[in-house]
């Protein structure tokens, strides 16, 4: 572990304020509150803005809302803008439908190590459990053993062992690239490494595999992957799947870059773009003692 890195959590969102609220409220109850939140908004409407405003008023951590116009699916661009707006040394990339466990920040901080990035893990909730969470009838931050067993036995969560145990930082390093457990919804990456490979590649069209592309390029740049399973789990709320019209072509692009040992995003953090709108901005968190 690299001692006490400054952490920024970049949460991507698009027009689902109910889920975003559940995610952010999960961060209010972390065992480690030494971090900032950047909401990377891909063009949501007024309801999301009002949601973030309400949350910011009672937040124990700084929150910034970075918005871009709704011109279609532009997740990579939104994430890059969130990364630009952040101020931490270590960036956690999270989707706005993934609720962190109480020790999420604590565990990511423990796994953070120079020369490595962390691919986190997720526990899938079904529609019924997700509805109870959003209605405030299921508190994922304080569920006990009985509730965990009930979730799994009812088929409302797809994993049980990860709900029960947290494993130490032993044997997590991966020496080769693998698609397994690469989920852009939950990653921890050093800011310097993101800048070195030019961030997420905005040339990817539509849904799919921009996260694997990032991991491939980091690997070619000398950054190894650590598996965050049994330490960094998040609860993934059920929703209808996005259209996957470009998934096959995006996958082919990743495979080509794997062969060509590409490190740089075609269009990423360094390219000149129109500015994102910072809807709400916090004071400089890191200037505090």
TrEMBL record:
Domain of life of the source: Bacteria
Gene3D superfamilies: Spore Coat Polysaccharide Biosynthesis Protein SpsA, Chain A
Record-level Gene Ontology MF annotations: transferase activity
Pfam families the UniProt entry points to: Glyco_transf_7C, Glycos_transf_2
InterPro entries, alphabetized: Galactosyl_T_C, Glyco_trans_2-like, Glycosyltransf_2, Nucleotide-diphossugar_trans
Domain Glycosyltransferase 2-like, first and last residues per copy: 8-126
Keyword Transferase listed: yes
Domain Galactosyltransferase C-terminal residues, every copy: 175-224
Keywords: Transferase
Name by which UniProt lists this protein: Glycosyltransferase
Organism: Massilia horti
Lineage: Bacteria, Pseudomonadati, Pseudomonadota, Betaproteobacteria, Burkholderiales
